[in-house]
Structure formats: C-alpha cells, structure tokens
Amino acid sequence: MKTLLVLYLCVYVAWAQDNLDYDDYGTDANASNKNATTGTSVDARGHRPLMKGRESYSRNRYSPPPVGGVSRYRGRPTPAPVGGQQVQEKEPQPDAGGCTHASEMMGVLCPTGCELKTTLLKQETDVKTSINQLKPQVDDLSRSSNNIFNYVNSMSNSLRERQRVFNDNSRVVSQYTDRVEEQHAYIKETVDTLFPSNIRVLQGVLDKIRLKIQKLEKAIQAQKEECKEPCKTKCPIPVVSGKECEDIFRRGGQDSQMYLIQPDAFTTPYKVYCDQSTQNGGWLLIQNRLDGSVDFGRRWDEYRRGFGNIAFDAGKGHCETPGEYWLGNDRISQVTKMGPTEILIEMEDWTGAKVNAQYRQFTIQSEASNYVLAVDGYSGNAGNCFLEGSLELFGENRTMTIHNGMMFSTYDRDNDNWNPGDPSKQCSREDGGGWWYNRCHSANPNGRYYIGGAYTSQMAKHGTDDGVVWMNWKGSWYSLKAISMKIRPYFASR
Ligand SMILES: *[C@@H]1O[C@H](CO)[C@@H](O)[C@H](O)[C@H]1NC(C)=O
Ligand SMILES: *[C@@H]1O[C@H](CO)[C@@H](O)[C@H](O)[C@H]1NC(C)=O
Ligand SMILES: *[C@@H]1O[C@H](CO)[C@@H](O)[C@H](O)[C@H]1NC(C)=O
C-alpha cells in the first residue's frame, strides 16, 4: 500500500509540475479573525471597470434561451395518507466501476485499480523508451570496445615483432618504439578507465530500471491483494434508481441521500446526492460548498467531468450527508437539456441565516458552446444575481456582472467577457473558481472558501473578491459558509 502511495505521489508530482501557473490555495486560518468591511465604505467589486477611452464593453453575443415548453412531468399525485414509515430497500452493491487489466490474466481491477493501471501503463512506456534508447548505446559500446581490443592486440603483436626484428638496432628504433609504447599505454588506459566508467553509468541506469520494475511488481502485488475481495462501496446504494432525482422520488426513493441515476440508456449510471425533502424533494445536487474541504480552483477538464465527494455515511449506514462537489458540466448540461429544468440555490452565512434564489428555467448548453448558461423566472430572497447583476453597481458596471448568457470559464480556458483574448484579463484566474464569468461576477459560488465570512482584498490572492460570494445578499467581501445548487425537472404543481 505504501509503494502504491509513493507511486501515486510520483504521478501526482509529475502532474503538478505540468500544471499551469495557477496559485493553489489552502484554507486561510486568518480569514476568521479579520473584518473586511470595517465600518463605512462599501467597496463593491465583482466588475472590472473600463479603462477610460481605451476599452469598450459589449455583452452582446448570441445565447440560446433556456429550454422551455411542455414538461416531461405532471404534478405529483397527492401522497397517500402516511401509515407507518415505509422502509426503503437497500443492498450493498459491488462497485461496478472496474476496468480490465492490460494483461487479461489479471482480470478486472477495482475502481482504484484503474488509477494504478493508468499509472502502470504510463510507467511501462517510460521504461520501454529508456531501454530502447539504451540498446543502441550498448551495442555501439561493445562494438567499439571489440575494435579497440583487436587494435591493441595487433599493436602488442607488432610491438613484440618489432622488438624482435630490431633487437640489434635498438638505438635507431628506440625512438619509434617509444612512440608506439606511448600510444599503446594511452590506448590501454583508455580501455581501462573510460570504458569501465561508461559501463558503470549504464549499470546505474539499468539498476534504476530494475528498481522501478521491482516497485511496479510490488504495487501490482499489493493491488492483487486488495482485489481478492470484490470491492464494496462504503455505504449501500438504494436499489431504487431513475433518470434523475424527481424520477427516483416518484419511484419511492424519498430519503435524501446518495443514489445512482441514469439520465438515458447511453449514459453509464453515476452517483449523485438527491435532496428529497426541500420543497417536496426531487432535487439533484449539482454543486455544494459547506466546509472548504474541496478545492474548487480547477481546470476545464475537471469541471467538465466533475470532482469532489458525493456523500458520506455519518453513522446511519447509508450516504445521507452530501459532500462538497461539482457534478460536472457534461452531466449538468445533459440533464438540463432533457426538458424544462428549475434550479434552487440555497445559501447560509456564518451566523446561520439562510436565503435562496430560484429560477424556474435553467439550461446549460453542451461543451461545443462552452456550456452557455441560460436562466429565467427568478424568485427568492437572495437577490437575482444571474439576471440583474450586482445591485451595488450601476449602469455598465452592473451589466458586467450579469451571468445569464455567459459561457463557462476556468483558469485554463478563458471564455469570459473581459477583453477576450487577453491572457492577463481572465476572471477565473483572479476569482478563484470555474464559473459563468462575465466581466466578472455578482455571484461566485465556486470561489475560494474563507472561514469566518468577512475577508479583505489584502487576503485575496489577486486583491479581488474571490470568495464564495453572492453580492446581492452579503456584498463582495463576505464569503458564505454554505451554498448549494440543486436542479429538478420543472412541472406545474397541482
Ligand atoms: C494572522 O495574522 C496575524 C496578524 O494579523 C499574523 O501575526 C499571523 O502570523 C497570521 N497567521 C497566519 C497563519 O497567517
Ligand atoms: C468585526 O465585525 C463584528 C460584527 O460586524 C464587530 O462586532 C467587530 O467589532 C468587528 N471587529 C473589528 C476588529 O472590526
Ligand atoms: C463604474 O465603476 C468605476 C470604478 O469602479 C467608476 O469610476 C464608474 O463611475 C462606474 N460607472 C458607473 C456608471 O457607475
């Protein structure tokens, strides 16, 4: 297991080295003991004001409206009178996420094994190329050393010959002999010192490769041990499944916890957290922040695939506690394009006060259009950041903070509305997360997590309001304790 860890670490380090120059951040312990808005002046940030006379701002680009039309769902039937709590059926499931090992004899790997497999394959090519590079060198070396041995031999022979022939005439010959002897000595030295040192270097390389192979063998052995038993998920997944959480609710999955969903027959089922109690349930959690345990300053690929922890078992034997995660833009896009979808954004400050923002329509386009955001139909008490921008700002400054119609941006893929094409003007680099940045934001749910709420521009990496911000509730310099985004197929309730 240790070697596995070491291996994993190596890979991670290698990966981290080719990371972009994004400043990673840890939690800032000092965030909690400072006050940002010490009193009077409210410094509204979020936008990037125009440089007078040098820049112009245009937010006009085509963006498709949210998916509307007829819902796939009708209102829920009135619930049957409650007569004793129904117990939901659950069963521990072998985790199906395995993949086959490159060598068939080794069978199917546990999901963790897939990581190892990738690592092994990568290492194998490394070793192969080193060996391939070494081969011609070794061949050359042995060829040239053979030649030189032959040369030295013949030289020695001729020396002996000459010594015999010119025995009597040694005075005449001695000068010549001396030279031949010199050369002989020189070549002999070369053979004695240079070649051994070359060979020593090669030996070292070989030893390293041998060591590498040993490590890999150990890791494989460890993995084999782990895979003896079929892998079990940490907590049982309910048997009931569905297209999304509303479907699951209607099929009887009415406890809030982790479920497997499968939006269509072509999609591999995946785990999500379903909130089945808020506003009658049926909510699929697509984003969640609650303790800063997951880093949201991530690349495009990670936002596409999703990251974080879906749910935990807090002792009840099933995964009823959601973790911090981003479901993944591909999945969010797929689910929201199946039909009219609503979104509920709930947030909480550090005193425990709670507000929410809800949009009756919410659609994310596919990656081909950089996951354009479209919302409509606001209600709630947190403030309409997506459609109106920040109410602390005015005119064009406010327009710059509207999120509706924006493409998704990450620090390695800039699609925002702040001087497109200028690498020094990227909202995502400065504001901490992947988001539908405009120029730049009024809401920043994927921003940096500050413990305690209030923070200052001095504490921010780039002096910008990079916290978990919802400007229309708490302003730029207050980072929320918790925020979550949940979606549900829209249907008119009866
Ligand atoms: C927190 O800030 C204080 C001063 O305000 C400083 O002395 C201390 O070193 C800081 N602690 C950390 C962990 O940054
Ligand atoms: C921080 O803010 C709190 C509440 O707004 C206030 O009671 C406290 O005095 C402030 N502390 C400082 C150092 O400004
Ligand atoms: C926009 O913001 C800049 C700087 O923050 C400010 O100078 C300017 O007056 C603002 N414009 C409007 C219309 O409020």
TrEMBL record:
Parts forming coiled coils: 199-226
Q: What InterPro entries does UniProt report for this protein, alphabetically?
A: FIB_ANG-like, Fibrinogen-like_C, Fibrinogen_a/b/g_C_1, Fibrinogen_a/b/g_C_dom, Fibrinogen_a/b/g_coil_dom, Fibrinogen_CS
**Protein name as it appears in the record:** Fibrinogen beta chain
Q: Where in the cell does this protein reside?
A: Secreted
Q: Which NCBIfam families match?
A: GGGWT_bact
Q: Name one GO molecular function term.
A: signaling receptor binding
Gene that encodes it: fgb
The stretch of residues making up the signal peptide is 1-16
Fibrinogen C-terminal domain location is 236-491
Tell me which UniProt keywords the record has, alphabetically. Blood coagulation, Coiled coil, Disulfide bond, Glycoprotein, Hemostasis, Secreted, Signal
Q: Where is the composition biased (Polar residues)?
A: 31-41
